[in-house]
Amino acid sequence: MAFLLMSVTLLHLITLAMLFIATMEKSWWVWDDMKNSDLWYNCEFDNATGSWLCASSNENDWLQAVQVLMVLSVVFSSISFLVFMCQLFTMSKGGLFYFTGLSQMFAGSLTAFTATLIYTFQHKEILEDARLLSGEFGYCFILAWVCVPILLCSGALYIHLRKKE
């Protein structure tokens, strides 16, 4: 039981870190090694200074929807972890972690999935760039997609997990 509890906790923390990286890191769309775009900025590498020069992304409704949904995904996953920790120490023997599991599944199935789905189908409108045809999805986009099934599995594990002494 202790191994299962540690495994679920570790899975939750890894997924939370992956969601945070996918939300904050700058690689949702990559044109080449020198230019990329994320949810917040369009960046270009300057060889002269050896640093990234970033400008705010053009705000449109699709981008704002993806931004909000990814932030909500991180928030719901964080809340479900805090609730799990509270339930772990206060719940009576034999109790189920329903709220934790449902919150985790909500973070995965609704918010992160919807955000990545919107970005998948609306990336042309989000980026509004003629160079779009030469680019590709970056690792943060892929990381966000990987988080979706992991969040669903983690939520299902929480729902079936019983507290034992």
Description:
With 165 residues, this protein is an alpha+beta fold. The protein is 64% helix and 13% strand. The chain contains four helices and five strands; from the N terminus they run H-E-E-E-E-H-H-E-H. It has helices at residues 2-24, 61-90, 98-127, 139-160, and strands at residues 29-32, 35-37, 41-46, 51-56, 136-137. A hairpin with a 3-residue loop joins strand 2 and strand 3. The termini are close together. The model has no long low-confidence stretch (mean pLDDT 85).
Low-confidence region ranges: none
Largest sheet: 5 strands, antiparallel
Radius of gyration: 19 Å
The span between the termini is 9 Å
Which word captures the global form?
elongated
Helical residues, percent: 55-70%
SSE pattern, N- to C-terminal: HEEEEHHEH
Count of folded domains: 1
The pLDDT mean sits at 85
Structural class: alpha+beta
Strand order of the largest sheet: 4-3-2-1-5
Instruction: Output the number of helix runs.
Output: 4
Measured by DSSP, the beta-strand proportion falls in 5-15%
Q: Could you tell me the number of beta strands? A: 5
